């Protein structure tokens, strides 16, 4: 199957997933008098997923056969191996995150997870740059802190504090 067809198929899959998630959010029982309620987060994720899926389908759809052929010729055999290693590494760090987030805490574990995940996705050249590492570190630390305080103060949802609590 060509790369274009794979991108269209995965876009359709995620679009159907987003629709199912949005439809499933109607079955969530409203137990609080919050302005947003427990349905807000699943619906927001469903909408963002649907938007990204439509963008992916549109980008793959408008790709010309010449562009697709040029991409196929430029691929290397080692790329598949690297993707497999990255996929296994991603699953491993997600598993560690899930196991340790309650004990260590949301902020620390999310910062570590983000740093590791971003590092996996960066190219070797980018990893050699000190500027890239500083930006990655800042994003990895500031993002979970922002999310923690957003959930705490805006949504009154308490995330695991772990050793910081």
Question: Describe it for me?
Answer:
There is one protein chain. The chain has 165 residues and is mainly α. Helix content is 78%, strand content 0%. It has seven helices and no strands. It has helices at 3-24, 40-62, 65-74, 77-104, 106-121, 124-128, 130-154. Helix 1 (3-24) runs antiparallel to helix 2 (40-62) and helix 4 (77-104) packs antiparallel against helix 5. The longest helix is centred in the middle third of the chain and has 28 residues, at 77-104. It is flat and about 55 Å long. It holds the Pfam family TctB.
> Cα-atom Rg, whole angstroms?
20 Å
Terminal Cα span: 51 Å
- Class by helix and strand content? mainly alpha
The helix-strand sequence is HHHHHHH
Count of separate DSSP helical elements: 7
Average pLDDT reading? 83
Low-confidence stretches: none
| Helix content, binned percent | over 70%
How many strand units? 0
The biggest sheet amounts to: none
What is the strand content?
Answer: under 5%
| Broad shape | flat
């Amino acid at each position: 199957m060509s790369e274009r067809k794979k991108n269209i198929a995965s876009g359709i899959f995620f679009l159907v997933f987003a629709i199912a998630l949005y439809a499933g959010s109607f079955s969530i029982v409203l137990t609080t008098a919050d302005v947003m309620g427990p349905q807000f987060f699943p619906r927001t994720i469903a909408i963002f997923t649907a938007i990204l899926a439509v963008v992916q389908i549109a980008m793959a759809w408008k790709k010309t056969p010449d562009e697709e052929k040029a991409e196929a010729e430029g691929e290397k055999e080692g790329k598949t191996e690297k993707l497999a290693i990255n996929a296994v590494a991603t699953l491993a760090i997600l598993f560690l995150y899930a196991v340790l987030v309650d004990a260590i805490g949301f902020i620390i574990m999310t910062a570590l997870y983000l740093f590791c995940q971003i590092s996996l996705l960066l190219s070797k050249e980018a990893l050699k740059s000190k500027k890239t590492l500083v930006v990655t570190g800042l994003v990895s630390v500031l993002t979970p802190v922002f999310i923690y305080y957003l959930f705490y103060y805006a949504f009154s949802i308490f995330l695991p504090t772990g050793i910081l609590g």
